[in-house]
Amino acid sequence: MAFRLIALASLVPFSMYTGWTMLIAEQSLVAFGLELISRPDTAQLVIDLYLMAALACIWMAKDNRSRDGSLIDLLPYLILTAVFVSVGPLLYLVVKGFNRERQA
Questions:
Q1: Cβ pair 103, 20 in contact under 8 A
Q2: Could you give the CA distance from residue 91 to residue 84 in angstroms, rounded to a whole number?
Q3: Which residues lie closer than 8 Å to 94 by C-beta, 6 or more apart?
Q4: CB neighbours (10 Å) of residue 57?
Q5: How wide is the angle at C-alpha 21 spanned by C-alphas 19 and 22, nearest 5°?
Q6: What is the pLDDT along the chain (104 residues), one digit of tens a residue?
Q7: What pTM did the predictor assign?
């Protein structure tokens, strides 16, 4: 339960901040992303961020499989992770919790 509360306490303000910044942004999300990857220093940060997102997607897929979930159940979280990175895994933790069972 503690994981869910921590995830929720992170998800709500971060999502609100994300929404606010998107509302006041002077460029589209795509234009912003292209600008970030146009320089080596910021591209490194984006690559690092998406490597962590890929690891989170792998974790969510394994956790979902251990719960006998379908790909359709997981798809919204993967899409959110691809677009907003942290939002997908945080929402997954809020909704599904943390499965403590070990797989052999």
A1: no
A2: 11
A3: 4, 7, 8, 11
A4: 19
A5: 65
A6: 788 899 999 999 999 999 999 899 898 888 888 998 999 999 999 999 999 999 999 999 999 999 999 999 999 999 999 999 999 999 999 999 877 655 44
A7: 0.84
Q: Cβ neighbours of residue 36 under 8 Å, at least 6 residues apart? A: 42, 43, 45, 46
Look up residue 100 and give its amino acid. Answer: R
Q: What is the pLDDT of residue 104?
A: 42
Which among 56, 55, 33 is positioned nearest to 45, based on CA atoms? Answer: 33
* Pairwise CA distance, residues 101 & 71, whole Å: 20
Which pLDDT belongs to residue 10? Answer: 95
Residue type at position 83? V
Domain ranges of the chain: 2-96
What's the token pair of residue 34? Answer: 């292209």
Residues 6+ apart with CB under 8 A from 46: 33, 36, 37
